[in-house]
Design goal:
single chain, about 475 residues, alpha/beta, TIM Barrel, 21 helices, binds zinc ion
């Protein structure tokens, strides 16, 4: 048996937020929790000793990428993923099904799984004053994120291209976006024609009911994954919580395609249940895109299976509001198994999704934006919804700033270094920047999740949410 259980320790009286404890064979995970992503068996720029000293409860690694490099069979021979990466706590692995999107339509359409990257916000944040304040850099980062960071475990572009921060500093990522699609898509079941201008890249996937063929970006060779093989790879990795094999669809996929992919995902869910290593806990993944009837069908199909937990995946529409809608369709129909939202992890999203009953998240964003110069700032230090709780360390205004990054943060970086020093490291492309920045952002998110759990325990969740998300 997998020695997996989930206990709900408390519920918020005013929302659907819940405090929980996931027990796995390698330790417990207090929820709500944001699982740091270790795509290639590494939270980039950090060692597993860093993770231990930060108090990271668990991480999430990537089945597809580890299958390719260094190979799951090799990792098995070396004693499994925990031993290989020197991490003792619980490990999640995803199934490889997300790469159906990130290496497929995600590349071809150059979008994230929330389609238009919130164009209303782009136009707002792109105002001249905010550009002066360096907030445009945040937008630029968002646009970069259209290649994956809103999505779970998607570091494909970075896996190939290690861009140093000095180089990023010189780049201009601005792109123009069209109008957002509206409710017509929902009504007609069709994708609205207007949308982001897209820079097409090669679609590296071929998908049939049998499985997914991936063209390796490294050498052009084709690799085939199906449910049975994904379960075998995840068994070789010996992770503790695995994901059923699925097909993650694009926000630009129409109703018919999304339905086809969803039905395929349900077949693969059956096969995943059958073939998975029974020592591992397994989460099923609800698909169905941004179509209410499909989400309902998928919720019923996945929840009726004997999965240990339920993940919500796939396209979450074109805006944060769409994402909330998907959760409102889905979560009330689920029982008390743990619920994981794949690929989401911004502060406001976490509040909104926890309020709706999500227990765990995974997202590359906190560590990825750190490497690109966006560092978290608490409300006490000036962080707000308007600046996304970030400062952009590349900004010239920090050139001689002797303050710590966030005076209210107790991480090793903030205890030791000034903003001026961090900016200097960033601008010069010093490698130490990556580690110091990642330490801060990860520490910040861990403390944030801790505060969030404490607020549910104390009955002050909405108070905390209002404190963070208040708009001035
Ligand atoms: Zn800090």
């Amino acid at each position: 048996m997998s020695k997996f259980s989930f206990e709900i320790l408390g519920r918020d009286k005013e929302t659907n937020a819940r405090l929980g404890l996931i027990r796995t064979r390698r330790g417990d995970i207090e929820t709500p929790y944001l699982v740091p992503v270790a795509t290639l068996a590494s939270v980039r720029a950090l060692g597993s000793d860093d993770l231990a000293s930060l108090g990271v409860q668990c991480t999430l690694a990537n089945t597809y990428h580890l299958h390719l490099k260094p190979g799951d069979e090799l990792i098995k021979r070396l004693g499994g993923l925990h031993r290989f990466m020197g991490f003792a706590g619980p490990l999640f692995t995803d199934s490889g099904g997300f790469q159906a999107f990130s290496l497929g339509f995600g590349r071809e359409h150059n979008i994230s799984k929330i389609g238009n990257i919130f164009p209303q916000e782009l136009s707002r944040v792109g105002s001249s004053q905010e550009k002066k304040e360096g907030i445009q850099d945040e937008v630029d980062c968002r646009v970069e994120n259209s290649e994956g960071s809103m999505c779970h475990c998607s570091e494909e572009n970075e896996v190939l291209d290690s861009i140093d921060p000095g180089e990023i500093y010189k780049l201009n990522y601005r792109r123009d976006y069209g109008e957002n699609s509206d409710d017509s898509r929902k009504r007609s079941g069709k994708v609205a024609k207007k949308g982001p201008k897209i820079v097409k890249k090669e679609n590296l996937t071929r998908i049939t009911d049998d499985g997914i063929s991936f063209k390796s970006m490294a050498d052009g060779a084709w690799h085939f994954l199906n449910a049975e093989k994904s379960m075998k790879i995840q068994s070789n990795l010996d992770s503790d919580i695995i994901m059923a094999f699925d097909e993650c669809t694009s926000p630009l996929s129409d109703y018919e395609y999304t339905k086809k992919a969803m039905l395929r995902t349900h077949d693969w869910a059956d096969q995943s249940i059958r073939y998975h290593d029974k020592n591992q806990a397994i989460y099923g993944i609800i698909q169905g895109g941004w179509f209410e009837d499909l989400r309902n069908i998928s919720t019923e199909a996945i929840a009726s299976q004997s999965f240990d937990g339920i993940a919500i995946g796939g396209s979450l529409g074109n805006s944060k509001q769409d994402m909330h809608q998907v959760l409102d369709w889905t979560l009330p129909k689920l029982d008390d198994r743990p619920r994981h939202l794949l690929g989401i992890g911004e502060i406001d999203d976490i509040f909104e999704c926890v309020a709706r009953g999500i227990d765990s998240f995974d997202c590359v964003s906190p560590t990825r934006i750190a490497r690109r110069g966006s560092l978290f700032l608490s409300p006490e230090s000036g962080g707000s919804l308007q600046n996304k709780f970030h400062i952009n360390i590349k900004s010239a205004r920090f050139k001689s700033d002797e303050m710590p990054l966030d005076p209210n943060c107790s991480c090793p970086t903030c205890r030791t270094y000034s903003r001026a020093y961090l900016r200097h490291l960033y601008v010069c492309g010093e490698l130490s920047y990556f580690r110091l920045a990642t330490l801060h952002n990860l520490h910040f998110m861990l403390r944030f999740m801790e505060d969030l759990r404490e607020s549910i325990r104390a009955g002050t969740f909405l108070e905390l949410k209002n404190k963070w998300l208040r708009t001035i």
